[in-house]
Amino acid sequence: MKKIDRFTIENVGEGLIAAADEMFISWGRTSQSTIIYEVLDYAAGLTDVKANLIAQANGVTGFLGTITYSVKSVIEKYGYYNLLPGDIILTNDPYNGSGTHLCDVSAVMPIFYENKIIAFAANKGHWNEIGGKSLGSWSTNSTEIYQEGLQFPIIKIYEQGRLNTAVRDLIEANVRTPEMTLGDLFAQTASLKVAEKRVIDLCKRYGKAVVIQSIKKLLEDGEKLAKQEIKKLPHGEFEADSYIDTESNGIEDVYIKVKVTITDDEFVIDLTGSGSQVPAPINCTKYGAYSAARVIYRAILYPHAANEGNEGFYKLLKLIVPEGTVFSAVRPAPVSCNWEAFSHLTDIVAKALAPYIPDRLTAGHFLSIVGTIVGGIDDKTKQPFILCEPQAGGWGAGVNKDGENGLVAIDDGETFIIPAEVAETKYPIIVEQYALNTVSGAGEFRGGYGLIRDYRILNSIAELTTIASKYRIPPWGINDGKEGSNNKVQVHSKNKIIEKPTFSNYPLKKGDLIRFITAGGGGYGNPLSRNPKNVLDDVLNKYITIEEAKKIYGVIIEKVKGEIIINQNKTNVLRGRIKKC
After folding, report:
1. Helix count (H) and strand count (E) of the chain?
2. Fewest CB atoms within 10 A around its CB: which of 175, 321, 476, 543?
3. Using H for helix, E for strand and C for coil, what is the string for 395-456?
4. Phi, psi of 72 (to 5 degrees)
5. Is there a contact between 367 and 410 (Cβ–Cβ < 8 Å)?
6. How confident is the model over 46-81, as pLDDT tens digits?
7. What tens digit of pLDDT does each residue of 416-457 get?
8. Residues 6+ apart with CB under 8 A from 349
């Protein structure tokens, strides 16, 4: 084959990314549930014929890492000869490629050109209802996966373009919101066809041979980029440990540990020694661990990779995880809240490396997405309502910056929380407060602030399901930076306040208030080294008080003729460093 010029390779690469982006946008604009079109709790991508990731859209980072394994599971079950044009396969099996929990459904479509598979389109998103014992399907107190909803064992929902009505009917009969769930299914599968059309258009424009050769070159470029970037990292072995502290099912904190080994050719994450899987839904399977490893690996190595952010880029990553741990649960362990194990995997890798690569990693962040379901039977419509969303919180400070306020956690990527106006329109609640939680890790650069969000129940009855870690073990600081604050959830009912990290189908009545308080991130550097002007800004913005400025940062701030200023006579200021007089 003749050599392809660099411009054509880049054009093909950008065309593949555009196809993934259009798949992503199409699904979001045609879905029926707020978890998709408001929260954007989904992801989309393309693989080559061997299931190598070749392009991805923005979306949930935890889903993007599983695309490769979802496609592999389809190939392993059907082979290439049992896949035909128009076939679309569903899988949500956490133990066989899909990798997360049952609400997160993957759809895979082989893309044919000239009667041969040239690529796969794949997407994965959170269905608001998929059956199971609890409203909203994911549960914080399940003890086995069979309680968590319908399982799709890599089955065809479309066969040669024809809807498998038996599967459709099965879904309809087993979910509490059939119209919404089926609407999301049809939006999800239709978006695959958009990507299919764009990939076929690329083949028609450049020729199949050129597209295939360009994909091969892009994978090679991805590996070259990874080898280039890994040389910039400190080499050696780095260790960290922590605990997962959700209190789900009364389980004691689960010990987790990691050893990261970096050489010129490998980035190895070894989870040996971490606690065993537990009878609570905080486990993830090995495919979830693979995805989490990809998320933190890319964040450290080169988060800006576009065309090169493909399977070749991940070739240097190795994961060691013995079977049966909280990171590699085996059937029938529950995995409804798998994001807890997933998130903590990324966190302990970051904790091990952050002191050595402060230009690439910040201090610890609120981490747990504080997954939330508020649901019930609407008094007016007599139909189920299910508010399902993540919460946002504070991120850690870095070597030259304060942490970000009110962002979603690392495994949620490009997601959002439901806007107050939408929540009040769609559900029988009032959002009474949406504010910053101005308690975070002090430091030369302080941690970002978490959020406080109040939901007042307007329905006669409702229920709350939510789970949070970092309840007793706050986000960690770096280089003498202080720890952040904690995630917690409160239920205010008349004169009683109940505060816990985890609630399971907790009954609510009209007038009850739910308060979500998410953690502030860890600090970076000694608080006494904080620039007094930054301390003054925090006081003027009412993030901290004048008393806290003195107590925490050693900066004396006073009101002089009604103006708040730094008292230079009582505080020596030299190159941003503070010395108490």
Report:
1. 12, 24
2. 543
3. CCCECCECCCCCECCCCCCCCCCCCHHHHHHHCCEEEEEEEEECCCCCCCECCCCEEEEEEE
4. -60, -40
5. yes
6. 999 999 999 999 888 888 888 999 999 999 999 999
7. 899 999 999 999 999 999 999 999 999 999 999 999 999 999
8. 240, 258, 260, 269, 293, 296, 300
